[in-house]
Design a protein that fits this description.
about 475 residues; alpha/beta; two-stranded antiparallel sheet; about 15% strand
Amino acid sequence: MTETTSKRILVTGLSTYWGARLARELEQNQDVDAIVGVDSADPAGELERTEFVRVGTQHALLRRVVEAAEIDTVIDTRLVVDSTVTSSRRAHENNVIGTMNILAACSGPDSSVRKLIFKSSAHYYGCSQDDPAFFTESMGRPHPTGTSIERDIVEAEASIAEFREKNPEVCVTAFRFANVLGPDVQTGHVKLFDLPVIPMILGFDPRYQFVHEDDVVNALLHGALHDLPGIFNIAGDGVLAFTEVCSLLGKQFVPVLPPWGTGIAAQALRRLGVVIPPEMLAQLRFGRGLDNRRFKATGFGYRYTTRETVQRLGEHLRLQPILAGVREPYRYEREVEEFLRWSPYVRRGREEGGDRPPMPNIAQLSELQKFLTAYAGAAPDPREPSRPAPEPIAVSEPEAEPEPELPTTAPVDDYDDLEAEEVISVLGSLEGHDLVALRAYEEAGQGRDPVLRAIDGVLARREPAGTR
C-alpha cells in the first residue's frame, strides 16, 4: 500500500446519495486542490468547493472535462444495485454502457488519470445454497447470474478488469460493498426493515452482513488517500441471522413467502405495496458473507460492526416519526448555490473562521487585470507552444505602480446619503471601472467594512476587463 493524496478528483454520479456525500467529505480535505462532479441531473446535496458539470456518460464530453481539469483521480459512484429504482434497460445503460464510456474517457497515452476507484457491489457473488461461508476477493462467481442487476455488475467489473490490464500505470480499485444500512441512505433492505411486519421465506433464516453508510464513504475516502490496486470486500465484522436482525430492530417477522414460487408470491406482495427486488429474494433464502480482512490490512478501521449497524438503524426507525416533520429535503437551486458560494456575507463568516484564504486586494486585482488583458491580446490560442513566456506578476510590490488619483465624487448619485445595505444592493449593476472608483472613494471616505468587502467580492467574480 502506497500513501498518496489525490489532488484533482472527478466524482461521477453527483445526483446520487453516494456521489454528493463523497463530494462533501472530499471538500473537507484541504490537500485536495480541485473536486469536479458530473451527472446528468442536479446534485443530491449542498456543495461548496465542488464544481458541478451537467454531463452524462458520453465519453467524448467526459474526456474533455478530464483533460481540461487535469484530473488525476476518478471515483465512480453511479452503479445501480437496486432493480426497483429504474427499468432494466436504463440500469444496463448506466451500469454497463456508462462504465465503458467512463473508462474510455480515462484511457489514452496522454491521459492525466492515475487512479480509478469503482464502487461495486457484493451482488457480484450472487447467493446460492452451496456458497462458501465467506467470499474472498480471489473467488469468482460460482454460478451463472440470475438477475439483470447481477449481470450488469459482472459485465461492469469485466470492463474494469480489462481497463486494468490495458493501463498498468493506473491504480485501479474496485470495492464490493455488502448490504448498506444507515439513517440517510435509501436501499432495498432499509425499505424492507421499515415495514411494520417483515416478510420471510418459510423455512429459511439466512445469515446477513451489513456495512454502515459512514463506513462506505470512509472506504471511498481511504481509497482516494492511498494507492490500493485490486479488489476489496467492504463489510462490517460479524454476521447475524435474519431473525436476529428483526429482533434488534424491534420488528415482527412473518414467514409469508413460500419456498417454492417465491417470485410469484413477491409479485403478489408488490400489489400490497411491499416491493422485494429479485436480487434480494435469493439473499432472503441463502444469505451471504464477505471476508473483509484484506481491506482492514490496508489500515482501514470500521466504525461499526454488523450488529452495531443494525442497532443504529433501529434507533433511527424509532425516531423517524418524530423527525419526519422537522427535516426538509434538499433541492438544488442554482441561485441559492451561487449565493452560498460567492456572497460576501457568507465569505466573510468563513474568513473569520479561517476556512478560506483572504480575498485579493484591489492592487492585486488591478495587476491581474492588466496582465490578462495584455496576455489575451498576444495570440488567439493561449496553448500555442510558440507563445513567449509572460513576465511574472509583481503583485508583491504595489509601490512600483504610481498611486492612483483619488476620485472626488462617487459614481453613484447621492452616494454619501446611502446606507451600507443600499450601496451593496446596487453593486451588481456597476461596471468594473466604476466599482474600482467606488471602492477608492469609500475607502478614502466612510471606509465601511461591509461595503468594501462586498465590492471586493463582486470584483473577484467579474471577468477581467480586457476579456469582455
